[in-house]
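Protocol step 4 of 6: structure prediction from sequence.
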Amino acid sequence: MAIQEVRVKTMPHLEDIKGKHLLHEIQNTLHITSITGLVTAKVYRLEGISALQADFLARHLLAEEVFQIYTINEAVIKDADKLLEVSYKPGVMNPETGSIVKAAADLGITGLIAADSSYEYGFYGTLSNADTEHILTRLLVNETVERVVTEKPATLILKGRPGSTRVIPVRQMDNKALLELSRDNLFLNLEEMRAIKNYFADLDRDPTDCEIETLAQTWSEHCVHKTFKATIMVEGRAKKPLYQRLRESTDQAAHPLVLSAFEDNSGVIEFYDGLALCGKVETHNSPSAIEPYGGAMTGSGGVFRDIMGTGKGAKVVASTDMFCFAPPDLPTADVPPGCLHPHYLLRRVVDGVRDYGNRMGIPTNNGSIHFHRDFRAKPTIIVGAYGIMPAADAGKGQAVSGDLAVIVGGRTGRDGIHGATFSSGEMTHRTMDVNASAVQIGHAIEEKRMSDALLRARDEKLIRAITDCGAGGFASAFGEMGEETGVRILLDRAPLKYQGLAPWEIWLSESQERMALAVDPAHMERLADICREHNVEVTVIGEFTATGQLEVFYHDKPVCNLGMEFLHHGIPDRTMTAVPRKITAETCEPDLPCAWEQLCTKVMQHLNVCSKEPIVRMYDHGVQGSSALPPFAGVEGNAPNDAVIIAPVPGHKYGAVIAHGLNPVLNTIDPYAGSLWAAAEAVANAVASGANPNELVLIDNFIWPYPDEESLYDLDRAVDACVDFVKATGMPFISGKDSLSSTYRAPDGSVLKIPPVLCISCFGRIADVTQTISTDFKRPGNIIALVGQRKVSQMGGSAYFDVTAATSTRVPQIDLAQFTTTLHGLHRTIKNGAILACHDISEGGLLAALAEMCLGGGLGAEVNVPAQERTDYFLFNETAGCFVVELADQAQIDELLADVPHIILGRTTANQNISVTRDNNSIFNLATAKLLQAWQKPMREVFGGC
């Protein structure tokens, strides 16, 4: 059928924002200066309608007449020196197309059977073939999911014949053949492959492709966490599994607010007025490494669905993002084969998180970005979500025999296949090609409609159990929901994006925006009515049974029949050996500084210290109207707060606090101390903002190199740190996730271990959000004090040592007993009203904290360094759990913090300078404006004009 083309662009006399940003990238990042101008246009292809109908859609749907113009079946960019068009590859989810088809039907346009969209780029100036290729590969095209359009398609409809179900002859395979079968997609070890072989030998048959793929998904590191459940041997001594240690520490803490811990898609605590709060933090490292926009989008979408799939369903009220990249100015030659440049990764990951959260109307309001050269092969992408629900609906649901197996939301395609297993393996130069099908593009509007429908269904008590179709798709969702009963699935009922999928692909697909439900048959009609009202697809694809079997059929033919016992408990137990690595780093301390202004500005523009405001401003952190303490505050709105506080229930003062901490540099040097630092930083951020330490809980995310003996030892020490933290503070971990594939193997066999990351997220409830506190100084003449215990000589891993090329293994050590006392003393003082501003010390040390507080208040500070301390170490030490506070009355702090280490640093001033003295001798007097310029420079260069 005919395809009509609609092209839309910004009016010539108005600024083309997309073109402006892209031109900035070409000139300043790629250093191609021969391009003098760039304009962009959106191309829509519509199949099955007339040109007149296309014109109607252009006027009423696709173009905004106030600032855009459009053409039908002709060029809209007519005078460019070069014109390029870029689109998603056929079969890749394009979130716009489904919305276009639905919107056209709502406008009364019949006959539209398919749609597609792409971008045209018109370049002005001289553009060589080499420059064109450079722009395409670095900025415009990710070859995993995108292509350059060279000719008009004959049809937009994807056609195909379903693949057949294959039988895999594992019973005849020797060890070599089993490992070859596992190598690229299954990622199982030999012992696990032999267990599968023996299981089917006992059944006297070979497995289907669907069965072996199901076992690989269920047994993947991503899904079953087999390293965390293994017995760990350390120096000949068997230690309890990592997961067991974390779980037991939480049980022993017996926190009175905890309603659910490590049992559901997220952890749940008691809130107020019969409500509950839940939180989950996930990683999406591997997908983001090969397609950062889609990987980040689907990371956010997936963790939102974790909240939606907790208990009987929760409303998502907040989103977080924590990223680790190599420096954006990394030389291209230093990017390993098969990997994307960190500048591109950073921008596209931010775009993905922005677009998903903003389009769903979920505030992204807490996060951080960290940089280290060894993230050059693979970034760490962490996304979190928090939700609210009736406490009565917080318990995990359980399907019963006779319940319907129901799928709600998006359709199933080939996207996401092997996502769970792919995320469990090392990254290599082949990953971009071998695992391209694991990449997905999210559809936030679809998920928003689904979320609204499911909340209605929850409130009407229509849902027995719910979970998301995350890693493993239907296989993981229904396989887990039916573990205690059994389930029978009819795959030919599943709505598909296009034909041509083999049964195992339908079963394993990780296509986004789908939720799996167990529904009493008596409630199905009402659930269908609600879904129709919200324009959400709902389909019964099976039922839960009492057989204890996972039974999957395609057109009445069995394609999978596995015992639930073997599926969930047949994986061989692991015993793993951990061996400490040899520390070879030498101590090299810096000379005493003389050029203080240059030093301070270098620290402030260090990538781990500098302002991330250009990124934060892209996120709508005020949507839902719940923001009580936003990411930035102060007279100019540019001072970062330590935590975010929201009031999610309109008309009530109670609220929730969200914070986090991580430090890959410290984890690389000392995984135990670095892990304590991360936990202390997370909690310090929350308490500095006014949270009560007695009402906080924790979430862990371990993103670690593939666990060889040395990396496993470091992981073991990190878990020990978490357990010790719970014992000392009483704050339990109630949810977590491990991702143990942060390793890159080069074509020559060399291995790069990505820096180990432990991200600790912290959340809790706050009785009155009006009694919280921001970081910006409030008035001149007030006292500045340093609260908390630290040894300033512990400078290893600091930004100061990095900018001075110094090294040391003496990283900050957290005294947990004193830290706990400090938290309670600080909270008592804040609650008393004595503290006017508070900021915890982290990257950049005391100097960075002071600068941010001064910038926020439009003030300055006079600070005196104690005579016994080395001035540079005193200013740049990064011990977590220490705080800079502003107060009007010194007597109050001496009384309220009698049991807490504290010293008076100096006073706030009206003049906007930071003045530092020692022994009454001036060290430096530096204008905060210079610090501000240095602090804002790095990210403004990366996101120029954003």
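Step 5 (inspection) to follow. The chain has 30 helices and 40 strands.
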